[in-house]
Design goal:
Blueprint lengths: L6 H4 L17 H16 L7 E6 L13 E5 L8 E11 L5 E17 L14 E7 L38 E3 L4 E8 L2 E9 L3 E2 L4 E5 L4 E8 L2 E4 L2
Parallel strand pairs: 7-12
Antiparallel strand pairs: 1-4, 2-3, 3-4, 4-5, 6-9, 7-8, 8-10, 10-11, 11-12
């Protein structure tokens, strides 16, 4: 999940040369600041060895903006600077206040696992089928499988094309326990840690919550972690 920059960074000032924005694009100083802001936001959510490529699109060519002495960038509500996105620009000092949005393509590249060959759904990953290489993390919302060891033995729930990055959405969720199993529970908070056991009331699937009944009869919601292990959601 992309971590957004603090408001203080989003309020970086852009100083205009005094001329209105041209319909076919943005002034060079605007573009430099937009690219810098997008790179900062993307780098906050990627590994150190990653890199960012930012493509700034043109605003609506029908726009005719009034001259402005000070423009500030802002992130529109619900937007994140990752993949296809938009960044806002507003005039804060001028005869006419205005606000526009600019399209962006923020592409993030970092190491991950990719398919060496086309693999149909249902395939069980075997040695030689994956290669560790640089892939585009931002191409899809699902996280890239980037751990040091290849996830061999995992089954695919959707096909992989040759060269395509392996993502969490490609893998079938593992079942860590079945309904009726005894599950070891853990719960941690500020200054405390609890260990207990309970009986699973539903299957414990990777990436999904489940329910466990304690010896007291109370039912708690848990997050499956490993074989017959789960974390209590406080």
């Amino acid at each position: 999940m992309l971590r957004l920059l603090p408001p203080c960074l989003l309020s970086l000032a852009l100083l205009l040369a005094g001329a209105p924005a041209r319909a076919q694009g943005l002034p060079a100083d605007w573009l430099q600041q937009i690219e810098r802001l997008a790179q900062q936001a993307a780098q906050a959510a990627m590994p150190p060895e990653g890199r960012v490529a930012v493509e700034v699109g043109a605003p609506d060519p029908r726009l005719r903006l009034a001259p402005c002495q000070r423009v500030e960038p802002f992130l529109p509500a619900g937007q994140a600077l990752w993949g296809r996105s938009r960044l806002g620009l507003r005039c804060t000092q001028g005869g006419t206040r205005w606000s526009i949005s600019v399209p962006l393509q923020v592409r993030v590249f970092a190491p991950g696992w990719a398919a060496q060959q086309a693999l149909p759904a249902g395939s069980v990953l075997q040695p030689g089928q994956l290669i560790r290489t640089v892939v585009e993390w931002s191409a899809e919302p699902s996280p890239v499988q980037a751990q040091a060891e290849a996830p061999l033995g995992r089954a695919l729930q959707r096909p992989l094309q040759a060269g395509e990055a392996l993502r969490l959405a490609h893998l079938k969720p593992r079942q860590w326990f079945a309904a009726g199993d005894t599950v070891r529970l853990q719960a941690q908070g500020l200054g405390f840690a609890i260990r207990a056991e309970g009986q699973a009331m539903a299957p414990g699937l990777e990436g999904q919550t489940s329910r466990v009944r304690l010896d007291s009869g109370r039912t708690v919601q848990v997050w499956p972690l490993a074989e017959r292990q789960a974390e209590v959601l406080l």
